[in-house]
Amino acid sequence: MSYLSEVDLGEDFSPFAFYRDRFERVPNIVRAQTVLPRAIEAQAILEAGLLQAEKTLPRELKELLLVTVAASRGDVYTVTLHGKLLSNLGVSELAIEELLKDYRQAGLSATQVALFDYCLKVSHWGPWVQAADVESLRQCGFDDDSIQEAVLVAGLESYLCTLNAGLGVEPDFEPRSLPATQTAPPPPRIPPSNHGSREKVSFLDSVYRSPKTFEPFELILSSHGFIPNYFRAQTARPDLLKAEAEAIVGVLHPEDVLSRRMKEYILLVVSAANLNSYCVAVHCNLLRGLGITPEEGDQIALDYREANLPESERAMLDFSLRITQRPREIHRDDVDRLRTFGFSEVQILECVVTTALNNFANTVQMGLGIEPDFDPPRAFEKKKMHRVPAESRPTGEDTGASIAAVAAEDSDAALVAEAQRGNLDAFEALVRSHTRRVYRTLMAILGQPEEAQDASQDVFLSAFKNLGGFQGRSKFSTWLVSIARNTAIQRLRDRKSLESLDEGAGEADEEFRPRQVRDWQDDPEQMYSTVETRELVEKSILQLPAKYRVVLMLRDLEQLSIEEVALNLGLSSPAVKARLLRGRLMLREALTPHFAASAGRAAR
Amino acid sequence: MITCDEFMAEFGDYLSGRVSPEVREQLELHLSQCRTCQVLYDSTRKTIKIVTDSCSFDLPQAVSEQIVDKVMAKLRRAQGQ
Asked: Is the Cβ pair B72, A431 closer than 8 Å?
């Protein structure tokens, strides 16, 4: 029935009732997942939320759409199962056959055909989707709710298709044969473009929801540590958002089968292969929060086969990629190969479900045009991702080109190349232009000017020694700051300072309650001389705990972006944001007595 | 209207100008009606400006030169050997 064995979950397992109600039996795709009941729960939540509910698009239309997208992907299993459902809903056999042959000639209205066209484009050519495509759907009379529902149905088919392929599910009924006439849509002629405006979170109009009181957001916060735009974009439909959040968190959060790190690797690698720069950026960031350095994360996204991973993990990533890209070519052998690496049935299933969920989210992100939360790693910027032909989706071939792309944007690249050849004058120029940044980084961590000056020398000497190992995967300045950070931390350890720079997750939850609520002077900078102000600021900054001080100094003094700070310190962007705000608020607190409206020179 | 806690949850992104128009509208509505958050917002913005303008921990040119010279002297000596 499938590549995995079936476990008896008893008649009372509640999702079974949902499926019996829908299909008059528990379908094989569900029975294939009984070794991990929560996988079935996630799927049932998605199907119930996305297909069953009849809020905007009629249920029958959604099933027709699902079957059409499934047919275009050669997903015989879903076509067969949901074709049966359509019969049960009263759709004639002839109508189903016509739909499978050519949905444009199957009695759908012209506007319905436009909606189907859009979903097929999203499903096959996601990165090419444009805001204009959605605009023309609006002109057909579809509102945001309908567009969202349709995109989610296309996403659901990506989910089901990946599941069927990875689990080798046999059809429940006599399999339908797919006519050769209807295949995937042809490549779009218009070149892909960035969405351009960042006015909105996505193509849709969303509604503001507070992370503290909106139930689905609480769930996401617990698992992601922040609310990605992916979810913010969908707030107009709490019902759909809730279903997605529950399914996603339900699959990603538990660590009893595969580790979160392994799951994030899968999400990163498969998103990269799907050319989804949005999801690549999110998962690079989440991995950073799990202690994976930005360089390692980039390497995995670029080409995990060259990354320093155990062979077994590489095999699992190979499998995730194959079921995504070549779902029709999977055999029992592929699953057996995973078993030889010691993976259990539950682990294999969780790998398939994680991959399926990734493909769901990738499709939805592209179909809704959700704007990035962070800048993606340079090699994955949207404009560059598009240069990769869809047939030869990446990981592997273009590693060299991507590194060249980073180098092209690093103004130090030429000097670095010279210095690597042993040219000391070139290295001197590099030292000269980065002394201040290195010093500030050290000062931020060590808090003592003399020591920071002394350590600056160590940093440059160490950089010179290791210059051969610098491969241009990040900017030279980023690499230098990370050496400065390590040097400073080593010195802290040597002087046995217990002040910690790294604290685990959860810090974002710590509340910092502002105490002083006093109006400030209109023009506080006029109150003291430049020198006085600077002394005051320096003194106050040095009193901050180091972990806040470092982030604040790199952002507000060195003027690095949040993403650059994250990259430099090996933190996730949400962690940087949380620390930055905290640091700024603490500093505000310290400066208030000096700059409050009631404070004059006399008050000092 | 959103609460002060809710305002604080978005405060960091708001300071960086990283909120969508929908969120911005809510936050600004709150600001227009909550004196406490208004003071907090105003003074935090001023704090950031003061810090940035202060050029704190800037390395004096002379010290910077010294560091460059010391590093390069060591490297040139090593290369000469």
From this structure: yes
